[in-house]
Design a protein that fits this description.
The protein is α/β, with parallel strands linked by helices. The chain has 5 domains: 8-106, GIY-YIG endonuclease (3-Layer(aba) Sandwich), CATH 3.40.1440; 123-189, Orthogonal Bundle (Arc Repressor Mutant, subunit A); 207-390, P-loop containing nucleotide triphosphate hydrolases (Rossmann fold); 392-443 and 499-635, Rossmann fold (3-Layer(aba) Sandwich); 646-727, Ribosomal protein S10 (Alpha-Beta Plaits, 2-Layer Sandwich). It contains 21 helices and 31 strands. It has a 7-stranded parallel β-sheet with strand order 12-13-11-14-15-10-16, sandwiched between helices. Strands 5-2-1-4-3-6 form a 6-stranded mixed β-sheet, covered by helices on one side. A 6-stranded parallel β-sheet has the order 17-27-26-18-25-24, sandwiched between helices. Helix 18 (615-621) packs antiparallel against helix 19 (625-639). The radius of gyration is 30 Å and the shape is globular. The structure holds adenosine-5'-diphosphate and zinc ion (ZN) (2 copies). One zinc ion is lined by residues 447, 449-450, 452, 487, 489-490, 492.
Length: 733
């Protein structure tokens, strides 16, 4: 009699070539028929080779000629290595974005199985166990004696440690093993994740927190829509997450908590470990491969209740997922900007939860315009926290018009108000955060004779002067050069630096406020592993009174002594050529303002701007999310931008002529497909027309439905040109 089970398996082979990115059918031999499952790693014949692959489909129907059918050679693991629901998710990603299913699968594999990664193994060590409690040893065997004495206290110990402690050698251990006094065996060692033990504050929930939790629970029992938790800064959103996660754990399921930056994972881990203890894990690309390997398998085996991580942890292999939390859901870092599958984590999370009948909570003080719109439309359930905990007021925000400061003769980077506020810090234990969203010393170098700005030779970007190494840097490629003595265009000697970066702020502060200790947090000071944490600790401990930084200082920090936030130039993000520049400015200002006055003392905020009546600035000043949203959404509606229509960006990069011809060819193809010319913006050079020596041309498509299918069928281009398709792009530079 035939064994029951599927006759055929659809397998994607682990070969990184586009031509093989499809599902090949294989026969399932009788021996595996009862065991094979979707997600299994298998060995298959492929051409003349044997390669690894993953089972994506199982069926009883033959889809190819019987004569060409080959059989699976082996099941490589007892259980499927990719959860079946994650296989489904990978297939969904393939159709929703434009990329290879094999690339989507990379996110779901154990770290060491991914392309280009060396294979790591479980770390093992030799464990020594005492077998005979009171052995008799020869008088002169003092090393053996010390070994036994230690083991009498501990029963077992790792060989390496034992040898050191007992001042013995491995030969000593072997001698004792030969006498049957102890046993040496292999044991698995975990590369552990450490956190700082902090006490779990036992809080009485506020009425608003109770109400939000009730709403989310009701949604769980009802329609299970994603929940948008809109809570002002300091309203206690984390406490709501913790409560919902406790429910999930009680039901025997797991939760994934996503934060927008790896740098924020330690503080989140501390807080969650304080509540849930050992069964909390971390998964992100900042861990070593070995650490990730261990955390991944622990999660896969169901030994973890809560996984904390950045973007890619949305794919954590939790066997019985109940909840995904996206904290600060509006953050741009949730968008994958590399590879061919440029996914939006929010959408992936919602899809993944739907596949396993789980729930999603999106939390933010400044929800993405798209998210809030969906909530108002009823696609998401809306829960709100409108006040800070313990009746703490939101900080007062003052906007300073820098044009007036200029008129009054103030040429410094600090307005009179901000200078005064900084002076008042001295002698108190109050702290300040100063935001300037530009790193380096000065922003650009200009020739006063010919007016040319010094540009990167590879990119259409001005060079930034860094005093740390006294060189000009390109922030888009790795190019660095020393400051030329004369203008490369006209040879004049009148080169001058303009604009201020965080490095200069730190220098000026040190000179003008010598008794205020300041630390700086930006991409330059956090390059080394652990440096982010070290800077944070200096500020948290009060060693430094001022924290200067780029947008890094705006996110998620909870320091109770911060009573002052200064924004040096609100206009930087406002003047970006991007449809989301108002939104990003509003979010950045609101988020950084939210760092002030979180403790018992009231906080204030000083925003400097040359455009102080811009609605993004005044709305942030008034803590008026809804006011901002109404104005922004009507702008989006009138221009047919998201969330009313989809945007798709097709970008071709390469040599000038070839890149241009490629987008022109694509443009004609799109017209042939029946897309109306008025919905196609371009072909045109991208706002940054050249990066790393490659010219960049683009077309933006506005559409009602998804453009994924059309974009998958784009005509071929010359091999020197690279085409990327970004469905719902977030950044348009
Ligand atoms: P958000 O993420 O909304 O900005 P947090 O969750 O970080 O706010 O909470 C802000 C602070 O308020 C934290 O220090 C937290 O411990 C505290 N907190 C939260 N809920 C309560 C509560 N019910 N009572 C007192 N303090 C609370
Ligand atoms: Zn010049
Ligand atoms: Zn460059």
């Amino acid at each position: 009699m035939e064994k029951p089970g599927p006759l055929y398996a659809g397998v994607v082979v682990d070969v990184r070539v586009e031509a093989v990115n499809r599902v090949f059918q294989y026969r399932v031999p009788e021996t595996f028929r009862e065991r094979v499952q979707i997600g299994h790693r298998v060995l298959v014949p492929f051409g003349r080779r044997k390669v690894e692959g993953y089972v994506l489909e199982l069926s009883g129907e033959l889809e190819i000629e019987e004569a060409r059918l080959k059989s699976l050679l082996a099941l490589l693991d007892p259980e499927p290595i990719i959860l079946p629901s994650l296989v489904e998710l990978a297939k969904w990603m393939e159709t929703s974005y434009v990329g290879l299913v094999s690339e989507a699968l990379q996110y779901m594999l154990p770290p060491s199985f991914r392309w280009g990664k060396e294979r790591v193994r479980t770390k093992t060590g030799q464990m020594v166990t005492l077998l005979e409690k009171n052995p008799t040893l020869p008088k002169n065997a003092s090393a053996q004696r010390r070994v036994v004495e230690i083991l009498q206290k501990t029963q077992e110990m790792l060989a390496a440690e034992l040898v050191t402690q007992a001042r013995a050698s491995h030969a000593t251990l072997r001698a004792l093993e030969d006498k049957g006094i102890l046993a040496v065996g292999q044991t698995t060692l975990e590369r552990p994740i450490s956190w700082d033990p902090i006490p779990d504050p036992k809080l009485n929930l506020t009425d608003e927190q109770v109400e939000a939790i009730r709403r989310i629970q009701a949604e769980l029992e009802g329609a299970k829509r994603p929940v948008l938790l809109h809570g002002v800064t300091g309203s206690g959103k984390t406490e709501v997450y913790l409560n919902m996660i406790a429910d999930v754990i009680k039901a025997g399921r797991q939760a994934i908590v996503l934060v927008p930056e790896i740098a924020l994972t330690p503080q989140t881990l501390n807080r969650f470990a304080a509540r849930f203890g050992q069964r909390v894990s971390l998964l992100h690309s900042g861990l070593s491969l070995g650490e990730r390997f261990d955390q991944w398998w622990k999660t896969y085996r169901g030994e973890v209740d809560v996984v904390i991580g950045a973007r890619s942890a949305v794919f954590a292999p939790t066997p019985n997922l109940g909840l995904i939390v996206l904290d600060e859901e509006h953050e741009g870092t949730y968008k994958q900007e590399e590879g061919s599958i440029r996914y939006q984590t929010r959408d992936v999370a919602i899809k993944r939860a739907a596949l396993v009948d789980g729930q999603v909570i999106l939390g933010s003080a400044t929800p993405a315009v798209e998210s809030y719109h969906r909530a108002l439309q009823g696609h998401y359930c809306l829960a709100e926290l409108t006040a800070r905990v313990e009746d703490r007021p939101l900080p007062t925000v003052k906007v300073v018009d820098m044009r007036e400061q200029f008129e009054q003769g103030n040429r410094s980077m600090f307005s009179t108000e901000l200078r005064q506020a900084l002076e008042e810090l001295a002698g108190t234990d109050n702290q300040a955060i100063i935001l300037l969203n530009r790193r380096g010393y000065s922003r650009f170098v200009l020739c006063r004779q010919c007016g040319q700005v010094l540009e990167c030779p590879n990119c259409q970007v001005s060079l930034t002067y860094h005093r740390d190494d006294d060189r000009l840097h390109c922030h888009y490629c790795l190019h660095r050069e020393s400051l030329p003595g004369k203008c490369p265009h006209c040879a004049s000697r009148f080169l001058r630096q303009f604009g201020v970066g965080t490095e200069q702020v730190q220098q000026v502060l040190a000179k003008e406020f010598p008794n205020l200790q300041a630390v700086r947090l930006d991409a330059d000071t956090t390059r080394r592993k652990g440096s982010h944490r070290a800077i944070m600790n200096q500020f948290a401990s009060g060693q430094a009174q001022i924290l200067i930084g780029t947008q890094m200082v705006a996110k998620g920090l909870d320091f109770p002594h911060v009573t002052l936030v200064g924004v040096l130039s609100a206009d930087l993000s406002l003047n970006f050529p991007d449809i989301r520049s108002s939104e990003r400015t509003f979010q950045l200002l609101t988020q950084v303002a939210g760092r002030s006055g979180r403790g018992e003392k009231e906080g204030r905020v000083i925003i400097q701007s040359y455009d102080p009546t811009h609605f993004a600035i005044t709305a942030a000043q008034n803590h008026d999310y809804l006011g901002f949203f109404r104005q922004e959404i009507s702008f989006r509606r009138s221009l047919g931008y998201p969330p009313f229509r989809h945007l798709t960006r097709i970008l071709a990069s390469g040599p000038q002529q070839e890149a241009k011809e490629a987008v022109e060819g694509i443009y004609h193809f799109l017209l042939q497909q029946g897309l109306p010319a008025e919905d196609l913006l371009g072909p045109a050079p991208a706002p940054i027309g050249r990066i790393q020596g490659r010219y960049r041309w683009q077309i933006l498509i506005k559409s009602t439905g998804s453009m994924a299918d059309i974009c998958r069928a784009l005509p071929p281009v010359q091999p020197v040109v690279q085409v990327t398709v970004d469905i719902d792009p977030l950044f348009l530079l």
